[in-house]
Write a structure and sequence with these properties.
This protein is α+β, with helices and mostly antiparallel strands. It is built from 17 helices and 18 strands. Strands 3-2-1-6-5-4 form a 6-stranded antiparallel beta sheet. A 5-stranded antiparallel beta sheet has the order 8-7-11-10-9, sandwiched between helices. It has a 5-stranded mixed beta sheet with strand order 13-15-16-18-17. Strand 15 and strand 16 form a beta hairpin. Helix 16 packs antiparallel against helix 17. It starts with 11 loop residues before the first helix and ends in a 7-residue tail after the last strand.
């Protein structure tokens, strides 16, 4: 070859400048290693150049491109296929220490030992000698492409016999330019691979994803990006959506969250439900999770919209089913209450034919017990909870009924309440209601004989599901020779049994009149 490097050394700076510019403009799909090999081949004239990549995970160099004298390249290809050369993996550890230093510092290293040493012993000495004779090879040089502590490959230059390497400094300048270009190309490919990965994730997500700008006061701007799912469910093309904003696809009549976005823009994350309008006018209920962040001084909103059409249908079906069950349960409570009231009325009618006072009292007590349970079902029928009752309302109503039944004048017996507004489960409320009925009935029947005046105090306090019921009077007091835990009185026996039923503890004080205190913790009931 006549175009030796030194024949255009006066144009060296222009040559290298053009290469630097070419590196900036080189298309990503073009093989940069082949381009580097071509330029090094032009610089060293009729020599042969092997350009290798470096596989960091295997710590080996692998021949990527062969450039230089076309006749030598053809001769090499006729004797060795490209696959054969590409399969030659030169291990880092097989290279001499001086070669490793040169490769690590982008320095030129003259290889002693010929092709055999340059390939790290991957071919036999006889094979290497044959190749050198075929190519007429003289001196062999190698150098690395390294930048920022990363090796990207190497160049091995096979000079013609009797030729010497001219102007190595210019060659090393090209090596350094190539190292920077390889670093940038590697970074570009990594960036493209990362972008491709995230774009696939973005477009293959199950939900619609929208990215749009926000002003400082929270007003939504046009979409910056949307994924393919957004286009599919809304019926707009990607380009059409990029010319639209959230207000163009949201059904404002259904939900006005967009107008409230300005109020909540200071929050980093927002979750709400709204309805989107498709291109054909179809309404799509969605749940939107929005994350607001700042990128390059622009405030952006990333919103993930999940189609909840099926969930809404299920919710509506469940709502209808619950309404039907609620109606049925209310009807059950209503009928139980009516049946108990019928029993109470029958007892009341029967009692009119009874002249024995003790038997009459038994009938009246049974009547009151039926009424106390009927009151529970009446409250459940009227309540929105259906399984829990307000204890304060219940006790106030029950006390009022018992005063009326026993014909107690309120100016003679004062009734005082200290009741917390607490909701009690029906499974606790039925025995608790009967307990209140028995204790209050005992006060009204026995505490104030012979029109004696006094007061009755009823208290119900609780915290963390630990409750205390107190029924006290300042009447004649409980008989001292009577054990309230072991008595023939049906009422007190019921109180003891029902207290055990709710796992409660009962205590009697007789300082001034009679005071019953029952402490209990409400059980956890599992409904199947």
């Amino acid at each position: 070859m006549e175009n030796k490097y030194w024949k255009f050394s006066s144009d060296c700076q222009g040559f290298l400048s053009q290469i630097a510019f070419d590196f900036l403009e080189l298309p990503l799909e073009e093989d940069i290693y082949h381009y580097i090999g071509e330029k090094i081949g032009q610089m060293v004239g009729g020599s042969l150049v092997f350009i290798s990549t470096y596989e960091i995970d295997l710590n080996v160099f692998r021949i990527k491109s062969v450039n230089g004298d076309p006749q030598k390249v053809q001769a090499l290809q006729e004797n060795f296929t490209n696959d054969y050369l590409a399969d030659l993996a030169v291990k880092w550890s097989s290279l001499s220490e001086s070669a490793r230093i040169a490769l690590s510092e982008n320095q030129l290293h003259r290889v002693k030992g010929g092709l055999y040493s340059a390939l790290g012993g991957q071919l036999s000495r006889e094979e290497c000698q044959r190749i050198q004779e075929l190519l007429g090879t003289g001196e062999i040089y190698t150098t690395g492409f390294k930048w920022d502590e990363q090796i990207y490959g190497s160049a091995t230059i096979f000079l013609d016999a009797q030729e010497k390497l001219e102007d190595p400094e210019a060659l090393l300048t090209l090596v350094n330019l190539s190292s920077v270009a390889l670093k940038n190309r590697t970074a570009e490919r990594a960036l493209l691979a990362s972008e491709e990965k995230f774009r696939k994730l973005f477009n293959n997500a199950n939900d619609a994803i929208f990215l749009h700008q926000l002003t400082e006061d929270g007003v939504s701007g046009k979409f910056v990006e949307v994924n393919s799912v957004a286009s599919q469910i809304l019926g707009y093309t990607h380009e059409e959506l990029l010319n639209m904003s959230p207000r163009d696809i949201e059904d404002i009549k259904s939900f006005n969250e967009s107008k409230r976005m300005a109020e909540r823009v200071k929050e980093n994350k927002i979750t709400f439900e709204t309805t989107l309008m498709s291109k054909d006018g179809r309404k799509i209920p969605v749940e939107i999770n929005t994350h607001i962040f700042t990128l390059n001084q622009d405030k952006l909103s990333l919103s993930i919209a999940r189609d909840i059409t099926e969930r809404k249908k299920m919710e509506e079906e469940i709502k209808v089913s619950l309404e039907e069950k609620e109606m049925l349960l209310r009807e059950i409570h209503h009928r139980v209450k009516n049946n108990l009231m019928i029993i109470s009325s029958l007892l009341n009618l029967q009692s009119r034919y009874i002249t024995d006072k003790e038997v009459l009292d038994v009938f009246k007590d049974s009547q009151n017990r039926a009424r106390s349970m009927a009151l529970i079902h009446d409250r459940l029928y009227q309540s929105s909870h259906l399984k829990r009752i307000n204890i304060e309302d219940y006790i106030l109503t029950l006390a009022s009924d018992l005063f009326r039944i026993y014909a107690i004048a309120q100016d003679r017996v004062e009734l005082n309440f200290d009741l917390e507004d607490v909701m009690i489960d029906i499974n606790t409320m039925i025995p608790l209601g009967l307990i209140v009925n028995e204790l209050l009935s005992n006060c009204l029947k026995h505490a104030f004989p012979n029109d004696r005046s006094g007061r009755i105090d009823i208290a119900f306090q609780g915290e963390n599901e630990h409750y205390q019921l107190t029924v006290a009077d300042d009447g004649v007091g409980f008989p001292e020779n009577l054990d309230y835990r072991n008595t023939k009185s049906l009422g007190l026996r019921l109180v003891n049994i029902l207290t055990d039923q709710i796992d409660g503890k009962m205590e009697l004080k007789q300082d001034k009149g009679t005071q019953f205190t029952i402490e209990f913790k409400e059980k956890k009931y599992v409904y199947k």
